[in-house]
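Section 3.1: Structural characterization of target chains.
Under the original work plan, the team committed to producing a structural model for every single-chain target entering the pipeline before any wet-lab resources were allocated. The record below documents one such target. The sequence was received from the expression subgroup and is listed exactly as submitted; it comprises 425 residues.
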Amino acid sequence: MSQLTELKIAIIGLGYVGLPLAVEFGKKVPVIGFDIHQKRIDELNAGHDHTLEVSSEELASATQLDYSANLADLKHCNFFIVTVPTPIDEFKQPDLTPLIKASQSIGQVLKSGDIVVYESTVYPGATEEVCIPVLERISGLVFNQDFYAGYSPERINPGDKLHRVNNILKITSGSTPEIAEFVDQVYNLIVEAGTYKAESIKVAEAAKVIENTQRDVNIALINELALIFNKLGIDTEAVLKAAGTKWNFLPFRPGLVGGHCIGVDPYYLTYKAQAIGYHPEIILAGRRLNDAMGSYVVTQLVKSMIKKKIQVEGAKVLVLGLSFKENCPDIRNTKVIDIVKELQEYHIDVDIYDPWVDASEAEQEYGIRTIDELQQGSYDAVILAVAHQQFIELGATEIQALGKLNHVLYDLKYVLTQSESDIRL
């Protein structure tokens, strides 16, 4: 394939990353959005996206986009883009199973001249060391002779309606200089912000994995500062506001670090580093600190309850928010669940309320049931865990009214002022 006019794209995986990409390409060229879940295909064919990343109007605007769960429908495609999840397992090791399975599927329909581009976050070298051999083995074709590859890391920010796939600068790369140029041209069809052509696939992979590693380490520093300031009796937000008056002070805030990116990607880099004999001190220290924040929050809450002479065992606590970030239904790797589990260790009765989250998904993913309505005067403690717009609009008086006459209000997200809450992170 040498002409953009011959382009027939297949997007493998229609989640938070794949669907917006498919919609944008579907406005320009023929696209098949492929997902192994027929329920997801039926939902999209009905014009609805449960992730809320793409509106019904936007789905309808992609006039050249079709959806399928049938692998045979991809046989006529010549440009494959893989956007499947790359999670970690229970031992915090990279789980490349979705990526390998996607490569196996593509291998069954791969033809001479085809290009496979990966967008999923991986460690440097994974595309060529893990994915390409699978494609070769299944297809019987030879890499960089019969088919080619590229890597263009996703930069989707779930729930963000300002930074979208078409206005975020895109990194591209290819397995040969010619393919790198062609991949770059393909993405330039939809990315108005432009592209940056990396020197190699490994450079592009490394660039992606350090983006979130850098954020993780920065947040870990602020979390550690919050622990110190809490012991000193100083309000962390007040300190950060004062320090923020300097032009080059970075505006990070303490909090829970979850989601499918910041809380996961660093483990891909540390895994590869350890595989080549280097022990990454700073990155892993930051991960340990951020992963421990849920436990710290509950310890602070329990101490405050005891000071107010509130019986801890058997107490009733409300957690406002379950998704990993504000104004988003995504509960993947949410660290709010760490707070819930820790509270249950104290035999505390926990209610969770989140108007953004699908109750059946929460029960399936974490075995917990969320509540549908808020009741005033019912709780010994209230934890404002996620800064959803609905909670901001409730305001201090309404949130305080959810607690009993004697209760503790813990604001993790600085939604309230210092005087309006009992504890702030």
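Residues 133 and 143 are 8 Å apart (CA to CA).
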